[in-house]
Design goal:
about 80 residues, mainly alpha
Amino acid sequence: QTPVLQKERIRSDSLPASELSKIVLLNAPQLRRFASNREVTSNYTWLNFVPLSLFQLLNPVEKFANFYFLVVGLLQMIP
């Protein structure tokens, strides 16, 4: 049972821990840190843009022709 909170203040030390986790204090620092609601929808970051894009372009399983011509081109450069 949760206590009815209307116009009275409740001290956090007067409630058991199970009831305390159900209360969200307004205009006061929270006693518990909640999970972030941030959503990341981008596929790339600054660090993984080049490796991921090269893998998508030259994946030997899906894009064998691209990978083949890259290897042939590299072999043509060797005297």
